[in-house]
Automatic annotation (TrEMBL), chains A, B, C, D:
Keyword tags: Allosteric enzyme, ATP-binding, Cytoplasm, Glycolysis, Kinase, Magnesium, Metal-binding, Nucleotide-binding, Transferase
Record protein name field: ATP-dependent 6-phosphofructokinase
Organism: Halanaerobacter jeridensis
Top-level class of the enzyme under EC nomenclature: transferase
Keyword check for Magnesium: yes
Residues involved in substrate binding: 126-128, 163, 170-172, 223, 259, 265-268
Gene this chain is encoded by: pfkA
Amino acid sequence: MSNLAVLTSGGDAPGMNAAVRAVVRKALSEGLEVFGVQRGYAGVIDGDFIKLNSSSVSDVIGQGGTFLRSARCDEFRTPAGRKKAAEKLRSKGIENLVVIGGDGSFTGAKLLSEETGINTIGVPATIDNDIACTHDSIGYDTALNTIIDAISKIRDTASSHERAFVIETMGRHAGFLALAAGLAGGAESILVPERKTDVDEVCQTIQKDYEEGKIHSIILVAEGVELEGQRFETNREMNESPAFALSKEISDRTEFEARVTILGHIQRGGAPTGRDRLLASRLGAAAVDRLLAGESNVMVGLVNSQVQASPIKDAIEQEKELDMDLYELSTILS
Amino acid sequence: MSNLAVLTSGGDAPGMNAAVRAVVRKALSEGLEVFGVQRGYAGVIDGDFIKLNSSSVSDVIGQGGTFLRSARCDEFRTPAGRKKAAEKLRSKGIENLVVIGGDGSFTGAKLLSEETGINTIGVPATIDNDIACTHDSIGYDTALNTIIDAISKIRDTASSHERAFVIETMGRHAGFLALAAGLAGGAESILVPERKTDVDEVCQTIQKDYEEGKIHSIILVAEGVELEGQRFETNREMNESPAFALSKEISDRTEFEARVTILGHIQRGGAPTGRDRLLASRLGAAAVDRLLAGESNVMVGLVNSQVQASPIKDAIEQEKELDMDLYELSTILS
Amino acid sequence: MSNLAVLTSGGDAPGMNAAVRAVVRKALSEGLEVFGVQRGYAGVIDGDFIKLNSSSVSDVIGQGGTFLRSARCDEFRTPAGRKKAAEKLRSKGIENLVVIGGDGSFTGAKLLSEETGINTIGVPATIDNDIACTHDSIGYDTALNTIIDAISKIRDTASSHERAFVIETMGRHAGFLALAAGLAGGAESILVPERKTDVDEVCQTIQKDYEEGKIHSIILVAEGVELEGQRFETNREMNESPAFALSKEISDRTEFEARVTILGHIQRGGAPTGRDRLLASRLGAAAVDRLLAGESNVMVGLVNSQVQASPIKDAIEQEKELDMDLYELSTILS
Amino acid sequence: MSNLAVLTSGGDAPGMNAAVRAVVRKALSEGLEVFGVQRGYAGVIDGDFIKLNSSSVSDVIGQGGTFLRSARCDEFRTPAGRKKAAEKLRSKGIENLVVIGGDGSFTGAKLLSEETGINTIGVPATIDNDIACTHDSIGYDTALNTIIDAISKIRDTASSHERAFVIETMGRHAGFLALAAGLAGGAESILVPERKTDVDEVCQTIQKDYEEGKIHSIILVAEGVELEGQRFETNREMNESPAFALSKEISDRTEFEARVTILGHIQRGGAPTGRDRLLASRLGAAAVDRLLAGESNVMVGLVNSQVQASPIKDAIEQEKELDMDLYELSTILS
């Protein structure tokens, strides 16, 4: 083994640059040549490889986003696309590829490995933290702190005007971010996709808080939440976002006037936290180690505070379960 | 003069607490008794006065929001409501009132002074910075930095995915925040209510940037912007927010894929910046000075870096003009 | 069991308030009465107990420091002092005490339990993270991010002037903070108490970096580091801080001009991060659970991402080892 | 006029990059060629000129430090050095130079203009804000907020342990930073070089606060402060820093135990605030305008909120006075 390539794919996450840096410098220290691929799998198919040296990754450890960029690539979803990708890699003499991304990116890495024999290693990076076989994914800790900072700002104005605020976080299928941010931010209610939400119950809790003298109510809602509740279903169709729908119900059914904040893409940006930089550094270096050990089609993750490799298949197929103890704790402490 | 009351009114702004602190401690140092009014003019009508001492305002200088709270009050908009308010103040022996807020709050202060003889002093606090007779209003500097921080986070993800982002700031009638934040944040385009926006022109600029190799485009839009342009008008009615409308046009008419972020109420919160604390401290103390000098129906502001009092009438009626030189500068530097 | 008391002791750490909040609200939800003790063990001896309810801990989850305050207490180090403390607790009918602090505080909790039969539970909180039987202690994550932020600021000026900067972190006996912050901050060298430091070697590395074109050098030094190296020992006695001593050597023996920054107490303050709030919430609630389960003289900690109780004795006596793999990683990635 | 060169000199300040960006893009928009000089005047003498285009300054508006770097240059302090500098500039056909820096840098710019006829324009950038003929200098606002953030962190730990903290800020000859940060940070005492400090009086105030129940005391001290007071002078010689000297006195003479924090170089770094970016953008563009208008040996500054040019001579020789009203205000509000 004399070289490897590295790419970032899917939604960007803070710490991706730190992971690329770790892959590059670890590989160089092992005497390997390193190529950066621009724009994810699209760049592989286009043969868009850049040789990277140590100074290529100077000062990127603290930068959000990914300097290698990311993009969707429909062509790579086809066997023909993956065949072409492997050919492009091999035309440069590259047999090893580190893929930094989430579920979708790992499916591609798995198929590429199985169909073409290119060695692939996955490094989990997504703010949603919904990847199995690792306790944390890169970017999650930074997004968590970004949301907490937003909650803190909104609480200022919520208290001043004695209002309820519905804050919508990212998370189409997973509530890790909403739950952790809600618990850490002291939110009065937290709604996650993993748990059915009864709008009646939420409104009753908020009204009870009002009657007991709370001067604000913060409700964290993951974007993928499905709302239910008798009086609610009738006007659901008029609203696309659960946050707006819930806000209307709260204004109608409690004495709080409710407002909505959709946090959106600010959750993806920002300088990575210490945790995300450490995680990215460890996993990036471990990916190189796994390739040197002759492995492929595996993902490196953090399990019981130790770096551990698992089959990519498991990372994709196993469901990562939300810790419902944390959910219970949030209802006790709020 | 032996006492005064102080209230915060209208939308909350970072630094309101620092202004209350300055009013309280300056008044105490002059031997006056100080009453805090809860929930703005509603609290005056309800006679909701709390005696404040020096430790009532300990550690509030750095807190966002307003611990005196704020609220709308329809009753105070009527002469009868204001008469009642004056009676409640006088029943406590209070003849002097400091009003910390924006345009709407000042209209109330002016009428209260003129109709009932209560001495009122306005202290300008609104993140919009749209109040005349002062260069800055309390809260503007903090909001400016909050928006810049958000732009910086969004730029990370915009560059990673080579996207355009339309970021909507507060500002229904004024573009001060959007212009300053856009210029300081290095936005590619800035849309303000004070200047007619040609959607064709905006899209052409963005497309030109794309062709010249820019890998992202950040467009700052004040919420009060009105869009126009030939191809645009036909579907305007389907969109309520100018940001969403503009985003659709950009995605349709340029090679950038566009996304929207509505910053919303995070712009109102957060620990006040140094500038906002200094401004609030100076204006709060000056309000007490003006009352002691026997003035009423005036607003204290910062003019040419000096504290200066102006008739509230002027602050309300004069239009504060956006500095179009800054606008021109933004087009040169982006 | 009908009640418990809670105190914070030793050096303050961000997240202590979040831990107190969790203890209080969890205990209330279990029907217990809760007393807060002011100023650590001194307050126990003085009988300084305040009844706490749910609103006593409103809005404290995001506040640095400890609203219960902390203090040294020489009297409690004596058997007589601890006897008096137990008497004071029992005079209020209190048999259960949650102690939030570090090593020294836990020694007191252990002796109090063994000598007087008061049930004690330790909750680990110290930015140094040097407590065994838990992967993280409360406050460590926040301090880590504070240091990284400082490194980032200093790198700006270091690069501008092509200088070396020696940054001294807290850590008299342990290098956890310095190592993690140095790795995450991209420091060129990291000096920790756990590993003997050869000043010659450090200077050679820095000079080599200079010759290879690095325009700055950041050296992280834990305050407890002992320096050695032939040319260095002669003038060691003149310097109290390892940072100043090392800085002089670097200026003398490399082409970089060196400067020193002692981060000091800013490392203890600030709003706790998401991680610290979550950890504090979990451990605080777990402390109440352990008391309800009839346990005493144990510490709750996070082991393999799960809450786990260990004898306080183990937490005090076992040495928590620095992960030397991380140290090796730092030399590869810098 | 067909081109210009730009350099940064002296201590770095946040916003220097934003100023360079404004000079570059404004000049390009006027059809001029732009050269960046590396490492201040040393780079001029070495002929170290790099042609800059619009993308040379992409994404630098938010970066601390200066990408053009800065350095001391003894040779430029001699007439021979300046003659050589002018020759190097003219050998490239450059007759115009924008100098971004402080007092020392402006002295060089003035002499260069007078002795060699090179047109020079000064842009004030120093966190100390001690330059006359401008209300603010670039970097001051960012440093102010950095110090306030540090005060806030230290207050957490000061309150927890009921301590006094002496915080030393930059400012060898000027107290602008210490005064503004102290006032905005709610410091109990502020010591500035412009005002003689009586240590007896400071200690008495602190002791009085203690007796009135304050649980902490924050004392801001500019590094250039000279202490006096009868009991103090005897041991002055043992201490180099006024902060350590004062801390010892406070511990000896009040019931507070005192600690010291020297903020040091973190005050120079960090992403510039909105104000600093706007100021830098306006002044950088104005510098190009002044050159195009045929001016030389002037500094552009902000006077009464408007950009204004003044002779460099005035900027250097006039003393910028500290606003003692702010000082008085700080004693009333603390």
